[in-house]
From TrEMBL:
Source species of the chain: Rhizobium mesosinicum
Tree of life domain: Bacteria
Matching InterPro entries: DUF1203
Designated name of the protein: DUF1203 domain-containing protein
């Protein structure tokens, strides 16, 4: 059983944009047409195919403004797509580059210094597990090693409570 799960942009955030909402800078998303490569959708975690319309917008994957709440450009299919749900395996979007930055954050959404590392694709799960085993790491971000753009989040798999597992029946 895996101890980590990959999480895409929440559907509620994507739906807000699909329904005319504004981005982290209070601007409407821009519409572009994919030329085939380099447009990873952060909701389905797949590349946006050649000729498909997409949104580019400012995204802040943190609950509130604070000094470590990085904001940057990301892509989203212009029309609704299914959220990535095979959370136990490496998402397709993470196979499009040689490496990514993997970095840990604490429960207050602050970067945990010394955790950020450019990581080869095949080493992302192991490094994320290593970071998430630490008590000071609440979750991990995967970001572009070239542009620092947010790709997805990695969390610890929550173990079922003992009562839910039948220990107190």
């Amino acid at each position: 059983m895996n101890s980590i799960q990959f999480s895409a942009m929440p559907t509620a955030e994507a739906e807000a944009l699909w329904n005319g909402g504004r981005d982290a800078y209070d601007r409407l998303p821009e519409t572009l047409v994919s030329d085939g490569e380099g447009f990873p959708c952060r909701h389905c975690l797949r590349n946006i195919d050649n000729g498909e319309e997409l949104f580019v917008f400012a995204y802040r994957p943190f609950p509130e403004l604070q000094p470590y709440a990085e904001t940057g450009p990301i892509f989203l299919h212009k029309h609704p797509c299914q959220r990535y749900s095979a959370d136990e395996i490496l998402p397709p979007v993470l196979t499009t580059s040689r490496d990514f930055i993997v970095r840990g954050y604490n429960e207050n959404d602050r970067i945990v210094y010394g955790t950020g590392a450019v990581t080869a694709i095949n080493k992302i799960p192991a490094y994320a597990e290593e970071l998430l085993a630490r008590p000071d790491i609440a979750y991990v971000h995967v970001r572009s090693a070239r542009n620092n753009c947010y790709q997805c989040r990695i969390d610890k798999v929550k173990a079922p409570a003992l009562a839910e597992a039948g220990a107190f029946t």
